[in-house]
Amino acid sequence: MKLKMIVTVASLAVLSACNPADTTQQANSEVQTSMTASITEAPLWLEEVEGEQALAKVTGWNKRTLDKLTSDPRFSQYQQAALNIVNATDKIPYGTYRNDMVYNFWQDENHVRGVLRQTSLAEYSKAQPQWQTLLDIDALSAAEGKNWVFKGTTCAETNHNLCMVSLSDGGKDAVEMREWDRASKTFVDKGFYLPEAKTALSWNNPDSLHVGTNWGDDSLTDSGYPYVIKQLQRGQSLDEAVTVFSGSKTDVGVFPYALKHQDQQLNMVVRAITFYESEYYWLPEKGDPVQLPIPNTSSINGIFKGQLILSLKQDWTPDGSTTAFKSGALVSFDMQNWLQNNKIGAVQLVYQPDERATLDGVSITASKLVINLLENVVNNIYVYDFDGDWQHNKLALPDNSTMSVSSANDDSDIIFVNQENFVSQDTLYQVNVSNADIVAIKSTPARFDATDLVVQQYFASSTDGEKIPYFVVHKQGITLDGSNPTLQYAYGGFEISMKPSYSGILGKNWLEQGGVYVLANIRGGGEYGPAWHQAGLKTKRQVIFDDMIAVAEDIIAKKITSPKHLGVMGGSNGGLLMGVMYTQRPDLWNAVVCQVPLLDMLRYHTLLAGASWVGEFGSPDIPEERAFLQKISPLHNIDPKGEYPSIFFVTSTKDDRVHPAHARKMAYMLEQYGHNFEYYENIDGGHSAAANLQETAKRTALEYTFLSQQLMK
Fold first, then answer.
1. Is the pLDDT of residue 24 over 80?
2. I need a labelling partner for 654 at 20 to 30 A (CA). Which of 198, 278, 304, 437 fits?
């Protein structure tokens, strides 16, 4: 279980109090001086998520942009193409295999909100499986008059039919959780129920849960996550639950989970002190929580054949040992020895990546440990076994592609592996890791014409000499005269790797239209392991921006494109990247698509989940870090008289992770200065800015229409 995955389950922080009368007066004053350089701050009423004044402003911006973009004939073309792709009935129904059944959540034009369904493994291998519907979210939404978005299930280890279903109102991270019986396909009468919150839970047994939620009484961290874990018995009300673990209000959050060890379940909690520093505790049936003596930057991947599997993000010499393990390594130690003696004992090396490789996933099956490696931004999958020491073999899967283990569990040796690249559509393999039997069982039909497309990998030199890899996808034989419309994409944060992937919408609405696509593997990501990410943390973050600029300058120098025809896109942390590209190097781009962005870096830690990211960006409350954040904060670095490319802000009112006020404030200031921008805030959608497939098609059509208007002849 990785902290990043835990943390993204929930996030909502308390906003600063704001007097509406005072902010209205402030806004009126600012309007009177709208074209002067004295305006340095956007009004705080824009932070009122559903405030009347804020939504009135948003409605006006939305209308102006929608009128402009939807009237372009290309919009309807792009939207219809996107709808055909997202609603296709021949896409791969990705499933989770467990207890001899494959479970799939499916959406199409007839199931807008989606259905949870199941089939047998033998049936799943067929071209047209027969599915049994378990839960219809469209029908549930209609019956209850809600816009429910399905956010998954958490099922009991000893009774897989008992599950807690997570339902989000409009796509928010906050969810309502209800107990549901998979066998009867009904919600359990008087079963467990948890009201809307950023809840995390783990089953102790079929009649008991460990729950972290909003208990009231100031029980959420500054980041908006729970820090009090309670045990809730069947039949108890929430106020009867008993506290089993407490963290601190200054933590990111505390989250319960479980590890399977031999024939027992170990109930655990992870206390996330910062986004990258965590403490792991075992909760014995009797006695106090016991902390594992492991580095607070490491991640527990599970238990395999009695060995606790641990991935390292820093160098580590275990207590009592003279053996040093390097950052990025995967190691193991005997869990039973620790449970009995509270001592780790001998630690063994499972895998040590070189400087151009990193762990990209660890899965545990009934008899094997499966490791997905990213080696120079290409995936390879290895199967490991343990018999006193570690041995491994590489799975014979296609080379030079992106691969992910889409399903694996410790009750079976059957896993599903998805393989793709920029121009080859997804193929799903069924793999029996016990005998390395590999069968391709499903493939997506081509969504665009890729017959004349070529993919090349280059390396740009950043300001400090580091070689930054990037991919370029384009039609064969393009003229290198700087006239090719080009879209550059990157993320650059949170150790998230950007890998080649097959996108039908990108292919149909950009590559087929003659566009060039560039994927930049800049620092801050995880492409080359922990050091690649840590190079850009906090006050070192300028190297991430320099990397992005270096890639742009490199493709311009190669005459693939020119600033007049170059656009850039990114979302969330990538939205911050877009804001910085807009303010630091406006001369490089003619279009910027800024999706669900962070832009106010002096107040980000006070907005929704912002406090949880201080480990990544630094704290505005620390003078040295604040000084740096002020230098890069897009909102605070707009030149009133500057010349800027057109920028398109895309966000969502229901995004309770990155506050829509970031985009609102930036748009407000650009409006005051008379700078050109487009704006679309979806009322639903959560952090993806789209609550269903229809909204996804609309949003992407708007983005590609904007890019076409700005970059194409």
1. no
2. 278
